[in-house]
Amino acid sequence: MKIQKIIPLTLVAIAIAVGCKKDESPSATVEWDQTQYTLEIGDFPPAPISTDNALTNQGVKLGRMLFYEKKLSKDNSMSCASCHRQEHAFSDTNRFSIGVDGLPGGRQAMAVFNMAWNTNEFFWDGRAHLLRDQSLMPIQDPLEMHETLPNVVVKLSEDQNYKDQFKRAFGSEEITSLKMSLAMEQFMNSIVSVDSKFDKELRGDATFTAAEQRGRKLFFTEYNQFFPDSSGADCAHCHSPKNFENDRYMNNGLDAGLDMTDLGRENATGNPMDKGKMKVTSLRNIELTPPYMHDGRFNTLEEVVEHYNSGIKPSPSLDPALANTMSTGLFLDAQDKADLVAFLKTLTDTDLMTNLKYSDPN
């Protein structure tokens, strides 16, 4: 397996920026530890991680602690992991996650893995510029954790274990929301999924069934309205390897223009041509992350495939490649759809579900 080493070039600058001070920990052995964290990236290209927050062992460890920390919520009952569960590829199988006040969120919780290869904003509508920005928003959202950052800082500062870990990660035991965001960004960037059956088959360590092989051919074959017998599902148009996404925002025809109640990307950009566009998510581990789409309207992969086969709805911002299929559909019969689902399930990485590097440290 290929190894990528991330060099922490600017952690000194970060420590100065957030205010370094003398060690006040009673643990004399607590020291700033800048040892680099090693990402195991399989056959993926090098991850374009921001040089101002390179991964370190102690930064990733702190981010993992915070990801599972319920003190980040108003009543200390909810953590990031409450809605991003490891066994579900760090997503939520509820259609809408329920926050600390018993209120449902507005969109389906997105899966958290291979974030290191996402460089085009975060959330379904891309309203968070960097992953560190995204990490703090659920804490403050009234529909989610409904807490304030100053309150979280106070709660964490009462715990010497946290003060020690902030010292190890950033050179000072002072706890700030900036440091919190940097640590959580590091941990989320460390969550890697690169060892599915699909990856093993490419390495020669697994063999596809006949159905999986037919599904792969359909997935990567382009739609052709003039030759139905050789036309494919054209999925790779939006979901291309290695991560089976394209880091873009697209309207996939869930609703006709006048029926859209969620403006999607338009909310973030103000551009009417972004109406209904949502982040194109990775199809890796798709078997583990129902329900599907930004509003969780589909419960099964079979429903998702049928949407693209025959359910595309028109609107001005609809992706042109999908619009081209509307007159005929994708020509997929029952066997084609079953084979396509069989292939999608080869993208499941069972190691991700149980890997102790990503689990609750408590």
Structure report:
With 362 residues, the chain is an all-alpha fold. The chain has 2 domains: 3-192, Cytochrome c-like domain (Cytochrome Bc1 Complex, Chain D, domain 2, Orthogonal Bundle); 197-350, Cytochrome Bc1 Complex, Chain D, domain 2. It has 13 helices and 4 strands. A two-stranded antiparallel ribbon has the order 1-2. It has a two-stranded antiparallel ribbon with strand order 3-4. Helix 3 packs across helix 6 and helix 10 packs across helix 12. The chain starts with a strand and ends in an 8-residue tail after the last helix. The relative contact order is 0.15. The model is unreliable at 1-25 (pLDDT under 50).
Tell me the CATH superfamily of the largest domain.
Cytochrome c-like domain
Count of spatially separate domains:
2
Overall spatial form: globular
Structural class computed from helices and strand pairing:
mainly alpha
- The radius of gyration computed from the alpha-carbon positions, rounded to a whole number of angstroms, is 22 Å
